Amino acid sequence: MQKHANETYDVVIVGGGPAGLNAALVLGRSRRSVLVIDEELPRNRVTRESHGFLTRDGIAPAEFRRIAKEQILKYPSVTFQSDIVKSATGRDGDFHLHLESSEVVVRSRKILFATGMKDVLPDIDGLSEVYGTSAFVCPFCDGWELRDKQISVIAPNDLSLHFVKMISGWTKHLTLLTQGSPFLSPDQHSEIQLHGIVVIEDEIKRIESLKGYVNHITFRSNPPVKCEGIFFLPTLIQSTDVSEKLGCVLSGNGPVMEIDTDTMGRTNVSGVYSAGDASGAPFQLISAASSGATAAAAIQLDLLDAEWNRIQ
Ligand SMILES: Cc1cc2nc3c(=O)[nH]c(=O)nc-3n(C[C@H](O)[C@H](O)[C@H](O)COP(=O)(O)OP(=O)(O)OC[C@H]3O[C@@H](n4cnc5c(N)ncnc54)[C@H](O)[C@@H]3O)c2cc1C
């Protein structure tokens, strides 16, 4: 909860995923007053287990955040508020944040956008029912659990060769589904077939599941394909346009638009920082946490600079 309507926080962190939480930890330990405002819809909320974060491999996403908050709240200058930041105005040293559920304007000297990305799923009947149980987006996150299984890779664009090659590191039993797009060149077809990968260039009718797990996939014309797991390419979009409207420049890494920052997380707008998925790949919990810690260090150094110079 916000302590005082008139308080100016040193830092408001928008977003309480690993990037925002690690930043809050570092800033709390730096004796900064910090408000974390979080809509509480992190990217990985659909999964039962998170993988690849040292000491936390296999943890449920909600448990990860619970432990993080418990440890951060040991530092009394950090508070959390569950809300959506609708807009932000102002300038370095005096930002104003406007929230969805209250008229109270939150004021801060610095803002960190750790707002993450949203996955827009391809429009395939049955996909949302198995997303997070047996359909995933990242083999580094969930490939181990699907190792040696019969996997369908849904990739109806020019990333398909790259994506199927990546997933071949975890299983050799692969079917590439192009959703009816005949975009593979004859050379690419030969290359894929050389690796024993079946290609189906037919539109998917439905992903059929049993007890929440994918079982088989049906097509417009082709016979059904048995399947124990799916990897697919979502469309990644920014979770919010608040940073862009405040003047932050975004640029494209392929089709994905990311907030531009320097190596410390500083954006082009003085006093505004970004960390985690919102400002770039690799889209991993540990990378997001690491960039949150880095941005927090930059914020602390910039605040110290301003305070030091004010006294001179
Ligand atoms: C299905 C799936 C499984 C994954 N599994 C793994 C895994 O096993 N291991 C791994 O390393 N990575 C995994 N990832 C990737 C991982 O989830 C992300 O890299 C990571 O969550 C990024 O952290 P973040 O803090 O940048 O953003 P997020 O964790 O997405 O957190 C951003 C937060 O900001 C909030 N927010 C956004 N806009 C606003 C606003 N305007 N106001 C207030 N709050 C706002 C959101 O609600 C959210 O709580 C997975 C991703 C997906 C999609």
Automatic annotation (TrEMBL):
Record-linked SUPFAM superfamilies: FAD/NAD(P)-binding domain
Domain of life per record: Bacteria
Parts forming coiled coils: none
Pfam families, per the entry: Pyr_redox_2
Cofactor(s) the protein requires to work: FAD
GO molecular function, one term: oxidoreductase activity
Domain FAD/NAD(P)-binding residue range list: 9-289
Keywords on record: Flavoprotein, Oxidoreductase
Subunit-structure text: Homodimer.
Protein name according to UniProt: Pyridine nucleotide-disulfide oxidoreductase
Organism: Paenibacillus rigui
